Automatic annotation (TrEMBL):
Has both ATPase and helicase activities. Unwinds DNA duplexes with 3' to 5' polarity with respect to the bound strand and initiates unwinding most effectively when a single-stranded region is present. Involved in the post-incision events of nucleotide excision repair and methyl-directed mismatch repair. It catalyses: Couples ATP hydrolysis with the unwinding of duplex DNA by translocating in the 3'-5' direction; ATP + H2O = ADP + phosphate + H(+). Keywords: ATP-binding, DNA-binding, Helicase, Hydrolase, Isomerase, Nucleotide-binding. GO terms for molecular function: 3'-5' DNA helicase activity; ATP binding; DNA binding; hydrolase activity. Residues 291-560 form the UvrD-like helicase C-terminal domain. Belongs to the helicase family. UvrD subfamily. It comes from Teichococcus wenyumeiae. This is DNA 3'-5' helicase. One of its GO terms (biological process) is recombinational repair.
């Protein structure tokens, strides 16, 4: 038997060797679905059933595509070239360039980003005299995206699929939008798939040529395909008889986490309908995780209804391991400290940083961990997203603060002078630059000069004047109101907050959350200048290109990946399960949130550390955070709870008192400062919980007496273990 086949179990081998005919691999996390797909790819090539260019392989991310290319190359013993291997978008872009003319485009068409799309749509609406206040273009944009996810070109949108917009004009506007795109030789992301599907539907010769080309089709993460992606796959796979329909999809219904982007779990059922006689293979041995990790994940996902049902048993020889840790902490800062400490402990044991990941539910959560890792000097990367201080909205807000702090900061001023749009045209800005250069003065001075001399049209002049006066006012308020309040006020009064509130794109809410997080971060510093310096240092720190780094990412981005150690922070009601998701989708979303939790836990090979904080600043106020219901759903047998033990079990009791046994009670409603649309709260002071001299108990070190206390760190003289420095939440008064 070939070497690569011996590395598979019998079921996996069957899935690899059943090369002809449709095949569906339906199996739980870590059972080797991706390994099967990769090996199958190599097997097809090794047995000379097809050339590399005759296999079409779809992955969910570019990173996964790269990994698959490497794995196939390793099995082949040479670089795999000329592959049709990539994400749906990448593969469709390549096809669309080949057949651009059939879609009325030139082959060098541009792919628009969301900003450009929006601008185009607005232009059309304005030209059609549609009141964009009453009918927000964003709503139309999301309708168009939904249609595109279903493969509906304007003429295919039926009355049933129509939306209530601008008195029944939606379909017509969609048609105009598509025409405009063609005029400017551009497509949006949704077009990549939809236009290719349309080409394949209406050009039998093109479809036939692909039928000849693609002898084998391989699809990873099948549970998250949407309708148009499914249609594309079906068109390509349904080769006319007597050719076999060699399509192999692997997936896990329990890991379907993209329904908010139009993914249709029903595609799994459709597969068996559309490809009659499909072989269905189930894999049941998990080779990734230890028994407790699997047990915890299985217990959690068992709470979902309507599952296809799968068995998952540990397949590793060394499946015994640590229980899943659930750690209760005081607040997010302490949570970040706990994670940082454990990462350092791991490093000391010789664990690799690239084998550790912090997986969060919402993007704003990375900030606290990034800061902690920077303080500790631990290199990290943010996967599938930007580092907190590099995000556009944070850079904008920082630019405002830099100008506030230092009016002559031209780079910052330039960034925000027309963000949000203040009607300052390029001519005005160029004139401002010229004047500044000529006089050797900063841009702000030139701007004042232009207002005074009237070298600027009335409307932009008023807007510019308002901005400059704003800065004067905010600067003047700074000593009186404090930098936190002024930041909040500034973001509102400059129109910046509103810019994102008006924005109805899916990212806008996350951006507002990031701005809130920024205001919280500023609160941790005594002065604005101190904060700005901190951020400048944080940003600079980044330039080492070390390979060994901790990975930070959202749970959504972690699909298909694995790490020895996985941290899952922020398991609190509202944050995870996420309130916004629940508000939008009710019970169905709760199940999707639970699947997301399942994806998170099953990324871990050896250690899984879940945490929640007892206090979190959410929606502007400090409040006691209720531990996530998912914590209750983890089977006790596989879990070990640390710090504030028992807190989670009292979840149903009224929240504040639930913690009183473990955490010293603080004023639940700290002083809240209202500043415009932002509520800014002072962090609840932690009362000196454990005084020097107190006898304490520590899970690991046993009994001892506190000899010194500093912040949250205690020096304890333990009776057996000797003197140790410990974090106070880890000890109980004895
Ligand atoms: P996910 O659902 O999370 O995408 P998956 O089903 O795709 O998981 P893989 O990533 O392919 O699972 O495999 C999980 C881990 O188990 C990988 O490290 C893989 O190399 C290993 N593995 C898979 N099959 C075997 C096997 N037969 N023997 C040993 N290790 C295996
Ligand atoms: Mg996989």
């Amino acid at each position: 038997m070939s070497d690569y086949l011996t590395r598979l179990n019998p079921e996996q081998r069957a899935a690899v060797e059943t090369v002809d005919g449709p095949l569906l691999v339906l199996a739980g996390a870590g059972t080797g679905k991706t390994r099967v797909l990769t090996t199958r790819f190599a097997h097809i090539l090794m047995t000379r059933r097809a050339w590399p260019s005759q296999v079409l392989a779809v992955t969910f991310t570019n990173k996964a595509a790269k990994e698959m290319r490497e794995r196939v190359s390793a099995i082949l013993g040479q670089p795999a070239e000329g592959l049709w291997l990539g994400t749906f978008h990448a593969l469709c872009a390549r096809m669309l360039r080949r057949h651009a003319a059939l879609a009325g485009l030139e082959h060098n068409f541009t792919i628009l980003d969301t900003d450009d799309q929006m601008r185009l749509l607005k232009q059309i609406m304005v030209a059609e005299n549609i009141d964009t206040k009453r009918w927000p273009p964003q709503a139309l944009m999301s309708a168009i995206q939904r249609w595109k996810d279903k493969g509906l070109t304007p003429d295919r949108v039926t009355t049933a699929e129509d939306v209530d917009f601008a008195n029944g004009r939606a379909r017509d506007l969609y048609a105009q939008y598509q025409r405009r795109l063609k005029d400017v030789n551009a497509v949006d992301f949704g077009d990549l798939l939809m236009l290719v599907v349309e080409i394949l539907r209406t050009n039998p010769d093109v479809l036939a040529s692909y039928h000849r080309t693609f002898r084998y089709i391989l699809v990873d993460e099948y549970q998250d395909t949407n309708t148009v992606q499914y249609l594309w796959l079906r068109l390509l796979a349904q080769r006319p008889a007597p050719e076999p329909q060699n399509i192999c999809c692997v997936g896990d219904d329990d890991q379907s986490i993209y329904s908010w982007r139009g993914a249709e779990i029903e595609n799994i059922l459709r597969f068996e309908r559309d490809f009659p006689g499909a072989t269905v293979v189930r894999l049941e041995s998990n080779y990734r995780s230890t028994r407790p990790i699997l047990g915890a994940a299985a217990g959690l996902i068992a709470q979902n209804n309507g599952r296809m049902g799968k068995t998952l048993r540990p397949g590793r020889n060394d499946a015994d391991g640590d229980k899943v840790r659930v750690v209760s902490l005081w607040d997010s800062e302490e949570e970040a400290r706990m994670v940082g400490d454990r990462i350092e402990q791991g490093q000391r044991r010789g664990d690799r940083l690239s084998e550790m990941a912090i997986l969060v539910r919402a993007g704003f959560q990375t900030r606290a961990f990034e800061e902690r890792l920077i303080t500790l000097g631990v290199p990290y990367r943010v996967v599938g997203g930007q580092k907190f201080y590099e995000r556009a909205e944070i850079r904008d807000a920082m630019a405002y603060l830099r100008v506030l702090n230092q009016p002559a900061d031209d780079l910052a001023f330039e960034r925000i002078v027309n963000t949000p749009k203040r009607g300052l045209g390029e001519t005005t800005i160029r004139a401002m630059h010229a004047l500044a250069r000529q006089e050797g003065k900063p841009l702000v001075v030139a701007a004042w000069r232009m207002i005074e001399t009237g070298a600027i049209r009335a409307k932009p002049k008023a807007a510019l004047h308002e901005l400059l006066e704003g800065f004067a006012r905010w600067r003047e308020a700074l000593p009186r109101e404090g930098h936190v309040v002024v930041t909040a006020t500034l973001l509102d009064e400059s129109g910046y907050t509103d810019m994102w509130k008006q924005d109805k794109s899916p990212e806008a809410a996350g951006r507002l959350d990031n701005l809130k997080e920024l205001i919280r971060a500023i609160g941790e510093f005594d002065t604005l200048a101190g904060f700005l310096e901190h951020v400048a240092l944080v940003m600079e720190n980044d330039e080492n290109a070390e390979a060994e780094r901790v990975s930070l990412m959202t749970l959504h981005a972690a699909k298909g990946l694995e790490f020895d150690t996985v941290f899952l922070p922020g398991w609190e009601e509202g944050l995870f399960p996420n309130q916004r998701a629940l508000d939008e989708g009710g019970e169905k979303s709760l199940e999707e949130e639970r699947r997301l939790a399942y994806v998170g836990i099953t990324r871990a090979r050896k250690h899984c550390i879940i945490s929640h904080a007892a206090n979190r600043q959410m929606y502007g106020t400090w409040s006691s955070a209720v531990p996530s219901r998912f914590l209750d759903e983890l089977p006790e047998a596989h879990v070990e709870r640390e710090g504030g033990a028992g807190a989670h079990r009292n979840r149903m009791a009224s929240a504040p008192s639930a913690f009183s046994g473990q955490f010293p009670l603080v004023a639940r409603k700290p002083r809240v400062i209202e500043a415009g649309s932002w509520e800014v709260a002072e962090r609840p002071a932690r009362t000196a919980a454990i005084p020097v001299g107190q006898r304490v108990f520590h899970q690991k070190f046993g009994y001892g007496r506190v000899v010194a206390a500093e912040d949250n760190k205690l020096d304890v003289e333990f009776e057996k273990a000797g003197r140790k420095r410990v974090i106070d939440t880890f000890v109980e008064k004895a």
